[in-house]
Amino acid sequence: MSQVKVTPVDVAVGILMKPNGDVLLGQRPAGKPYDGYWEFPGGKVEAGEAILDALKREFVEELGLHIVSAEPWCGVEYVYPHAHVRLHFYISREWHGEPQSLEGQAFAWQGEVGVEPLLPATIPLLEWLDVVRREAC
């Protein structure tokens, strides 16, 4: 029996980075897969939508923040039991507003990441991100 190839879902993910290197993590709200796990904020890219536009939309919808600029950083594919995702990570050092919990989610600025549990696709990126954060300081 051959396996059906599933097209990955494109997801725009934003890493907000303060001048001191701290980054914003959000906790997945109740009712979503992996609820309670911590991740970098973002969401699905809609059909015909540019990835950066999706990122900007998601940050307004989830956190009430307006991204001024963001640079593409890396891409990661990850297969969860519920979905095959293609994560497009952007780093933003410029935004307007303060994070608000518009979907009832917790969020936290982290230097050394101390929140748990972390979404599995996030874990390998933390070491790479530490290099970027050291360069930013």
UniProtKB/TrEMBL annotation:
SUPFAM superfamilies: Nudix (SSF55811)
CDD domains: NUDIX_MutT_NudA_like
EC class name: hydrolase
Reaction catalyzed: 8-oxo-GTP + H2O = 8-oxo-GMP + diphosphate + H(+); 8-oxo-dGTP + H2O = 8-oxo-dGMP + diphosphate + H(+)
Coiled-coil intervals, chain numbering: none
EC number: 3.6.1.55
Keyword Magnesium: yes
Nudix hydrolase domain mapped to chain residues: 7-132
Keyword list, A-Z: DNA damage, DNA repair, DNA replication, Hydrolase, Magnesium, Metal-binding, Mutator protein
Names of required cofactors: Mg(2+)
The keyword Translocase appears for this protein: no
Domain of life according to the entry: Bacteria
InterPro entries for this protein: MutT-like, Nudix_hydrolase, NUDIX_hydrolase-like_dom_sf, NUDIX_hydrolase_CS, NUDIX_hydrolase_dom
Alphabetized Pfam families for the sequence: NUDIX
Similarity-based family: Belongs to the Nudix hydrolase family.
Entry protein name: 8-oxo-dGTP diphosphatase
